[in-house]
Automatic annotation (TrEMBL):
Residues 4-190 form the L-asparaginase N-terminal domain. Keywords: Hydrolase. This is asparaginase. The keyword Lipid metabolism does not apply. It comes from Lactobacillus melliventris. InterPro entries: AsnASE_II, Asp/glu_Ase-like_sf, Asparaginase/glutaminase-like, Asparaginase/glutaminase_AS1, Asparaginase/glutaminase_AS2, Asparaginase_C, L-asparaginase_C, L-asparaginase_N. It is an enzyme of class 3 (hydrolase). The keyword Transmembrane helix does not apply.
C-alpha cells in the first residue's frame, strides 16, 4: 500500500523566478506544482497550491488554515505532509503548526534561498529531501520539522541566520536533530514533547518588542491599551531590562496584559539570574513570564496560540515555560 504525502505549496522564493534584470518575482503558478519527481514506488504525492504568497505576506490566519488542512489530512489517510514556504517567516509557520497539530503524522516544512531558475537553485533538492523525510517511518512522532540543506531541524528552535546563504537555517544551542545522507533519513537526537493546542481561531494584537541600551518607557506606554492582548520582550542578556522601563512594565501587568520575556541573544536561555534593578530576578517577581529557549518571533507565536486557546494566569505561564 502506497504512502500518501500531501504537498501544500504556499509560495516563497522556492516558487519564484529571476527576471532579466536579476530581480526575483512570484510566478503566476508555482513551478513545483506540476513537477514530476522521482520518488519511491510506495510514495504517492497529492499536490495542493493552498497559497502563492511571499512569506512576508504570511499571517497567523493563514498559518491556521494550513494547520486545519493538515489535521484533516490525517483523517483522509495521508502518511505525511510537506509544506513549501518562503524562508523569511518559515520558522514561525513551522512552530505554529508544531503547536497546533497533535498528530504523530510526519510534517515537514521546507523552502529555498535561490529562486527556481537561478544558478545553484536549492529549491528542487530541498523539496525532494523534504518528501523523503515526510515519507520515512523514522519521522513518525518527531513533531513538525524543517528540512533544508540536508539537515533536519525541530520547528521549535530552528531560525534563519543569514539573509542569502543556502545554509541559513540553524538550531541555536542544540543543533539539528537529524541529517539526510545518501538517501537515508537519520535522526540523532530527540526533543521533549510539548503541549499541543488544536485551536480553531487566532486572536490579534500580540506584539514583539526588542530591548536596547538606554531604552525608556515610551514603546511600552504606547502598547498599554485595552486592545493589546500580550507582549513578548526580547530582553538583554540572560533576561534583564533597563530600569527606566520598570514602571511601564508594571502598569502593563496591572492591566492584566501578559508579558513574556526571552533573550535577544542568538544562543542561550533566558533565566532570572541577576538580582539588581531591572534584573531578571525582579522581573520574574513582578509576574513577567520567562520563555526558555525560544527567540522573540517564536515566543510571540507561542503566546498567540496560548491566548487563542483561552489560557491565562498560571495555565498560560506553565504553557509558555514548557
Amino acid at each position: 500500500m502506497s504512502k500518501k504525502i500531501l504537498i501544500l505549496h504556499t509560495g516563497g522564493t522556492i516558487s519564484m523566478s529571476e527576471d532579466e534584470n536579476g530581480k526575483i518575482k512570484p510566478n503566476s503558478q508555482n513551478p513545483l506544482a506540476d513537477l514530476s519527481l522521482n520518488v519511491d514506488d510506495d510514495v504517492q504525492l497529492v499536490t495542493e497550491e493552498i497559497f502563492n504568497l511571499p512569506s512576508p505576506h504570511m499571517t497567523p490566519e493563514r498559518m491556521l488554515q494550513l494547520s486545519l488542512r493538515i489535521r484533516q489530512a490525517e483523517a483522509e489517510g495521508f502518511f505525511g505532509a510537506v509544506v513549501t514556504h518562503g524562508t523569511d517567516t518559515l520558522e514561525e509557520t513551522a512552530l505554529f503548526l508544531d503547536l497546533t497539530i497533535s498528530s504523530k503524522m510526519p510534517v515537514v516544512v521546507t523552502g529555498a534561498m535561490r529562486s527556481s531558475n537561478e544558478i545553484g537553485s536549492d529549491g528542487l533538492y530541498n523539496f525532494r529531501t523534504a518528501i523523503m523525510v515526510a515519507s520515512s517511518a523514522a519521522s513518525i512522532g518527531k513533531g513538525v520539522v524543517v528540512v533544508m540543506n540536508d539537515e533536519i531541524h525541530p520547528a521549535r528552535y530552528v531560525t534563519k541566520t543569514h539573509t542569502t546563504n543556502v545554509a541559513t537555517f540553524r538550531t541555536a544551542t542544540f543543533g539539528p536533530i537529524g541529517v539526510v545522507s545518501e538517501g537515508h533519513v537519520n535522526y540523532v537526537q530527540t526533543i521533549n514533547p510539548q503541549q499541543h493546542l488544536p485551536i480553531d481561531h487566532v486572536i490579534s494584537n500580540v506584539y514583539l518588542v526588542k530591548a536596547y541600551a538606554g531604552m525608556g518607557p515610551e514603546i511600552l506606554q504606547a502598547l498599554n491599551k485595552p486592545t493589546t492582548k500580550g507582549i513578548v520582550i526580547e530582553a538583554l542578556g540572560a533576561g534583564n531590562m533597563p530600569p527606566q522601563t520598570l514602571p511601564a512594565l508594571q502598569k502593563l501587568l496591572d492591566n492584566n496584559i501578559p508579558l513574556v520575556l526571552v533573550s535577544r541573544c542568538f544562543n542561550g536561555i533566558a533565566e532570572p539570574v541577576y538580582d539588581y534593578e531591572g534584573g531578571g530576578v525582579g522581573l520574574a517577581k513582578m509576574g513577567i513570564i520567562f520563555c526558555r529557549g525560544l527567540n522573540g518571533q517564536k515566543a510571540r507565536i507561542k503566546l498567540l496560540v496560548g491566548l487563542s486557546a483561552g489560557l491565562h494566569g498560571e495555565q498560560l505561564k506553565k504553557y509558555i515555560n514548557k
